[in-house]
Amino acid sequence: QVHVVESGGGLVQAGDSLRLSCSASGGPGRTYNVGWFRQTPGKEREFVGGITGYGGRTNYADAVRGRFTISRDNTKGMVYLQKNSLNPADTAVYYCAVSWKLVVSMPILANEYEYWGQGTQVAVSS
After folding, report:
1. Mean pLDDT value across the chain
2. How buried is 35 (Cβ within 10 angstroms: 0-12 exposed, 13-18 middle, 19+ buried)?
3. I need a labelling partner for 63 at 20 to 30 A (CA). Which of 81, 88, 101, 109 fits?
């Protein structure tokens, strides 16, 4: 059974940095694609960024490009979302989504991912 876990959320002030972590266990290896999504009440879950399992290709939403960086350490089975220059608009529940499918391009739709974590709350005060 696949188990996805995010960690690292919290309450920070505008301009601060925060790093979220994601790991998946129970699947066929550590080279899984990871997408980070976020959701606020009343809105649909939106793609923040992602990294492919093979090759480590990344893609980011326009709203976070240049501020957020995704990296991975396959030896540890960890994927990280480094968030810099946070602002109140970044307040949301952040989800890590995982897929082992071989892909040509970075999956950016929620339905392209098979397994999800429980989410971690990030709140940015002004």
Report:
1. 94
2. buried
3. 101
* Cα(123)–Cα(126) distance, integer angstroms: 10
Q: In the chain, at which residue ranges do the beta strands (DSSP E only) sit?
A: 3-7, 10-13, 18-25, 33-39, 46-51, 58-60, 68-73, 78-83, 92-99, 115-116, 120-125
pLDDT of residue 105: 82
| Residue 11: count of CB within 10 angstroms of its CB | 12
**123/35 Cα distance (integer angstroms):** 20
**Short-list 89, 100, 92, CA closest to 34:** 100
